[in-house]
Amino acid sequence: MTININARDLQQYVGTETGVSRWFTITQQQINQFGEATHDQQYIHCDPDKAKSSPFGGTIAHGFLSLSLFSAIAYDAAINLENTVMGLNYGFEKIRFLQPVKVDSQVRGRMILADVIEKRPGQFLYTWDVTVEIDGEQKPALTAQWLTMTIVGE
Predict the structure, then answer these.
(1) Which of 11, 38, 66, 129 would suit a FRET pair with 147, their CA atoms being 20 to 30 Å apart?
(2) Residue 111 has what pLDDT?
(3) What is the dihedral of CA 52, 26, 136, 91, to 10 degrees?
(4) What's residue 1's pLDDT?
(5) For the chain, which ranges sit under pLDDT 50?
(6) CB within 8 A of 114, min separation 6: which ones?
(7) CA proximity to 31, closest of 16, 53, 46
(8) Contact call for residues 101 and 107 (beta carbons, < 8 A)
(9) Model's pTM, two decimal places?
(10) What pLDDT was estimated at residue 117?
């Protein structure tokens, strides 16, 4: 659940986990649609029969598919400032794909607010440490340091 706070209280959350998202099931249909949208239809993603003979034993999600869940993860697990006008993706400092996500796996995200800076009045640059976990696996699918910008109104 998203935490709704006033901007003056932001610094209290630096260094803390702000939330954990719900579980998302990664289906073959999603993988295929992502492959079509990104023009990446490599067999390890989109050909279940051929992928059976791969080292993964079946299809796996694109790493960028797992990364693309960050917006949905943030809706569940990030801080929401009162009077937010918009939130923007600002980029990444670091991304590491650590383990493949096999088809029909469930993943969820954990968010830690690593830093926040008020760049201009009403413009807050967040640095998030995000981990995407795979249900039943010790090693996460990925870790990233994600930058977002929140703009608040009066």
Answers:
(1) 38
(2) 98
(3) 110
(4) 55
(5) none
(6) 14, 15, 127, 128, 129, 145
(7) 46
(8) yes
(9) 0.93
(10) 97
